[in-house]
Amino acid sequence: MKLRRTLLSMLAAATALATFSVAAPAQTYKAEYRMSLVLGPPTPWGQAGKLWADMVKERTQGRINIKLYPGVSLIQGDQTREFSALRQGVIDMAVGSTINWSPQVKELNLFSLPFLMPDYAALDALTQGEVGKKIFQTLDKSGVVPLAWGENGYRELTNSKRVIKSPEDLKGMKIRVVGSPIFSDMFSAMGANPTQMSWADAQPALSSGAVDGQENPLFLFTVLKMHTVGQKFVTTWGYMADPLIFVVNKEIWSSWSAADQAIVRQAAIEAGQQEIAIARKGLVEADKPVLKDIAAMGVTVTQLSASERDAFVKVTRPVYDKWKNTVGVDLVNMAEKAIAARKK
Ligand code: X2X
Q: Whose CA is nearest to atom 1 of ligand 1?
């Protein structure tokens, strides 16, 4: 008798639980979800966010309605706080750079190791292979749901002072770097005088001449017309590239139905693929039209020869070795192997 009663009450509890978990998602959808981005449209990064949000809205018939917050405005422009804010739910979803999240997720510094990835095939060998999967597992453990890869791009050097072909040319030059310590280490090793600041602060610092130079993908040079703030010299050295990652806050993710989760994931994958093509446009063609466009603005564009590049590789090697330990020796070894085995 007693056993029967216990069984019955257990059954009732289980039924209540089942009913609850089926009913819950419909009640918890928000009217609007907040997506954080550093750069807005018209940059490839901004387009990544827009493509994703538009696809999701259409395919969920408006159940998931996303508003874009470029300029990391949900966290007052402080891009190095984006990952923590995502975890805490201040931000619902984001397309973010590995650089900006690397202070919280040390493995993401992998992509910032100087001269690790010599070409796009190397970058793809990492993001699209086992290394990419490992990094997604790490992000998942760190408290967000990673869905897809996009791309900010190869970060090239620009400055207002002179042609840079060797570390000696960089000597003493004030270079704005992102707020991730490996960048200060690299630019110090090259003899420059690095200054950490957010992208929001970098723009006035370039205009006023408070800094001499910066490094970012070249589409940003064109979009912002950086030659008008005195950036007259560009050096393409391909020292590192920052991928973008599409993620959703964990609580938000689990509040969606499985069908909607599948839509959001698939849309992120498609938006990422489209955006990578946009980010590389003008840089993968043999005559590199983007470089021609920049030269046409009266800017001196210097493409390093292999031996000139080697001098930069050499001076930054101690930084690579130091950060290899921070990133994780196993992960870096895995990445080096994947790059050596890439199809060019
Ligand atoms: O701050 C930068 O340089 C930028 C816009 O590229 C990033 O957010 C990493």
A: 199
